[in-house]
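Lab channel / #folding
Pinned by the channel admin:
"Please post every new chain as: sequence first, then the structure tokens as a reply. Keep commentary short and put observations after the output so the thread stays searchable."

First post following the new format, from NK:
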Amino acid sequence: MTSFYPVDPDEPPGPPGRGRLGRPLGPIVAQCPAEHRAWLELVRQAYLESGLTMTVLSRRVHMARSKISELMSGRKYPRWELLATIAAEVRLPAGPLYRLWRQAAPEIRRKSRAWSAETAATVAVQHSPPLHHTGFRDLTESGYGFYASVFLPGPARAAAVEETYDQLWLAWAKALSSPDIRRHGWGVLRTSVMSRTPHIDNCHHFLHTAFDTLALHNLSGLEHAQAASEQLAETQDLLRAMSRLPAPQLDVIVLRFLGGMTEDEVSDLLGVPLAAVRSDERHAIRFLDSVLCPPPDTEGTPS
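Reply from TO:
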């Protein structure tokens, strides 16, 4: 096969992890967008676990080491045909990787006609996900979808959930070896959702859809404009206070009080003990009460 890039001399594969031959991978560049980074980190991890050196990978994919390093650093967005070749060598399934790559591509490249034609003509090899992955999705998809809907509008919500399951598929062995696959999966989902969530007021999370839902619910039956206005203000205050909660407490409150889930259901979805759910809920409510219903100021009151 004729190479399109200069290929470096042969070198035997090195052992995976520490002690491997060749130069270590450089870091991903800071300006690499979140959706690009989402799949790139998984490709890098698969390469490190493969035991291949950069030289051996260069020979196998017929690409110069400098080009592979550029791809692995996120400095440029690769064509699918190049990424697919590397994915095959490091044993990553093409289907979920292609979806992640395609999802990130419009955010990074201005698609010319040639780019669009190349993308449209590319067909990813479709594989069925592992059976356990399918079962895990069946058990969690409803909860994941609701959580994403609290922070994101429709298209972004669907993209975050799909990205979560594709990332889990690409690193399914790692997910299975984690202390609790439910907790591992929740961490992947939360990262995907928050990377798309608008932020205001010192990076607090703005609960986009939650405001619409609560406002409509609370305003039902209110006939006077003043009462409606006051109710809207209270809803805004509540969500603004919720946005200041630490991540575990925010998640529990969202699932319990916006999603109507029981403590046991929250515990199962998050993969945390029931006692932790109750503790997070208790601390969150205490904080919200302190913000929304502060004690009266008694300073200067005559004794």
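NK: The domain at 34-121 is CATH 1.10.260.40 (434 Repressor (Amino-terminal Domain)).
TO: also worth noting, Confidence is low (pLDDT under 50) at residues 1-19, 120-125, 215-232.
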